[in-house]
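Bit of a strange request maybe. I'm writing a small parser for structure token strings and I need a real example to test against, not something I typed by hand. Could someone generate the tokens for this chain?
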Amino acid sequence: MKRNIIPFAVLAAAVALFGASTAQASFLSSILANGSNSFEDQDREAYVDVNNNNTFDVGDVLLGFVRLDNHFPTVSGVGPINNRIYAIFSQQVTSISGSTVNFGATTATGLTISALTGTSAPSGSMIAVYSSSTPITDLIASSPGDLTGNGTTNLFDYFKAIKDNMSLNLIAGFGSGPTNADDYFTATGVSAALLAPGGASLIPTVPTSVTVANFTAGLTILQNNDPEVIYNELVVSSNLTSHQLVIANGSVRGTAATPPVTNVGEWTEINPDLTYNNPGGFITDADFFVNVTVIPEPGTFALMGSILSVLGVGYATRRRQSA
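Reply from user aminoacidic:
Good idea to test on real output. This should exercise your parser:
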């Protein structure tokens, strides 16, 4: 009789192990539901006049950090996001036509995703998403302090707070090859605050009540560090094409306000060792959409096989004892 009971004890232990394995999944994968998922974001970003000509034009860069929150649909057993998903981004102006600005991956020295994240990010990278099982400092409302040790707090300290306290989950941007030829990142309705001659000088005085531009993007997942999640090209964006990551309903606003936007003097500043002119920044809001298939961790498959093997042995043992 004891031999008949052993398989069930082993099964109970295996179930306990299964629970431990699931807990090791990233926070991002733990909140993603099969199918379509949406997030809202808050963003703080700096404008870099790479050409140093006091004009917003081709070659200039916008970079900063995003906090993702308000996820839908909610996943049972998972509470509010609460500063547990952030992203670092960098995008460079590739062309301007009227009031439409097109962006691509940044190539300016020191401002690429590889440089900002300290990784060998794939070519075409524009945004790196991080998550943590525990909340980090609220970087939208408070300062991380001088983490880089250069005597001042700037945007690179915000990036360091993300990298030091969170795990890199994915990098997205413009994919290569014909299947990703429709990737895009476009801002439309860009106001005179940027496009007027010498408009860069106006950036620090643009109030938060002014919408500088609206933007949308359809990007490819270039690097996926979550083996539990498959990103599907099933999200339809505003231009009726499908992408793995869609950024929609984006609105770029100024930073000037009374009282001032929190810590604006810190996150609008970039590393002082760079020679690029850094005349100011913006705040933005947008919606992020992904369509995913959530799968068990690789170790789970092996564990399930072990469970079935044990159950099979137990069944065979009972058959022999009964004969």
